[in-house]
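Folding Problem: From Residues to Backbone Shape
Fields: amino acid sequence; protein backbone structure tokens
RECORD BEGINS BELOW THIS LINE
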Amino acid sequence: MKINGKVVKLNGPEPLVDVLISAGYDADRVALEINGALVKRADMAKTMVYDEDVLEVFSFTGGG
């Protein structure tokens, strides 16, 4: 699978939340797409990720 263009190896299907944590993301502070479709935060825990999936993760940053 890919996260923001970087190839990531999975050990079979994994919950999205676990994939995000393993990749160093805080699941409560990101928005994301899987294969071009937005995933609601409420659905992250029950969404499974597979080897052929492509994730685009967007982190929110503050500033002024």
The longest helix spans residues 16-22. The CA atoms of residues 5 and 47 lie 20 Å apart. The radius of gyration is 11 Å.
